[in-house]
Structure prediction request, 412 residues.
Amino acid sequence: MPVNLSPPDPKSLLPVKGVTLGVAEANIRKPNRKDLLLIRLDDGARVAGVFTQNRFCAAPVVVARQHLTMLDPDATIRALMVNTGCANAGTGKEGIAAARQTCSGIAGLLGCSSAQVLPFSTGVIMEPLPVERIMAGLPACTADLRENNWLAAAQAIMTTDTVAKAVSRRVSIGGADITITGIAKGAGMIHPNMATMLGFVATDAHVSLPLVRAAVAYAAKHSFNCITVDGDTSTNDSFILVATGKAQMPEIDDAKSSGFTAFRDGVTGVAAQLAQAIIRDGEGATKFITIRVEGGRNDDECGRIAYAIAHSPLVKTAFFASDPNLGRILAAVGYAGVADLNVEKVDLYLDDVLVAKSGGRHPAYEEADGQRVMRQSEITVRVVLNRGTASATVWTCDLSHDYVSINADYRS
Prediction:
């Protein structure tokens, strides 16, 4: 079971004016499951995204990037298409052609150009995209298009996820209430380097395109780029922000304004909830772990140390076993690549328990206290470097027997 994560309440998911969503069972990989999602956007929506930095990026990532940059200045993105079951990655020129074919099919149904469609895929890598099944399922998606279809949309993009991930909130900006709703998928192959496996956030806020781009980059940095399950960066990572401009409010076009800050922080809050839900639903995860590194000279060294701890199989398996073998954490701090780190200044906390002081075991530390914390389902590891004011936070999970089983059986 996921770590303190319940399915979203459909009543909590707020429709966003200018966005409709439709799903279908296209039998892309397995029968009798939602596996195809179409998100239709009203004309005029501002759309921006960040994508995987994996050089072996998937065909839909290549095409989506191209479409976001090649649009006519007077045109806007009109649709997002997401399939699960097949990643369309490692598929060469044929994969690019397949992704473009699906865009053309959607364009024909919606009456727009293919460049106004962004494709996204998730699933098994190095398998050809079943274009004919997607094309056959698209009419059902269009027939299902509704404003209040966010939960079904979240379910339609799942792979090894056990719980759908969807979040809404309202934010007041200058007396106007805006709506922000988002969905995401991911449970394994999670170490985003620009985005999560797949994440889509929409809002009715009226925001200029440059500031939509700024907001999606900021939100990714402070949410999806702060999580890791297993240290593997996917070929398909994509995080998209849509602002339809339907809210009754003046356009936000000043990056220094309080309105932009409120908008950016609202989007980031939704993205952070989705990112943390991915960790709580990590494949085989039994514990949600926050790793905070404080007192560094810069953000980079703090992040290096936090990820060294989060990626260590020895640390992660110790958490799974509730074994306070905490020297493994100090070892990870030491090999993180901070060459001039003075370990004699490093303090280590496990929740409220001071484990190590000035680089060595604290005289008052009792293993029973460490074990008490390790048995919890939510744990905070805090490393204090005592060499500056910078900090970094990473969210991760433990590594269990089930992680191996899930990934060994993934294609069966």
